[in-house]
Amino acid sequence: MPLLLRAWAPVLASPQEVLGDDLITRLRGDWRAGQAEAVREVLADPAQRAGEGGGPDGGDPGHEPARRVYEGAGFAPLPVVRYLRMS
Question: How far apart are the C-alpha atoms of 29 and 38, rounded to whole Å?
């Protein structure tokens, strides 16, 4: 898991810079524990390992390496809009 968490750190830093520490903590809590658990669940379920290549990434720079990998493997991006109340 240490490599996984190092790989996710720049991905999660990008929205944290935009949204700030307080809001990102309220939205994600302890992202390291949550991310590790999500990966364990996917690895344990073969049905989850097929099909979708990834979740919404917002187009931020932290996700660029992952986008290149997914697109190189034949996945196509799906435009997604996410609304957050900032107050």
Answer: 14
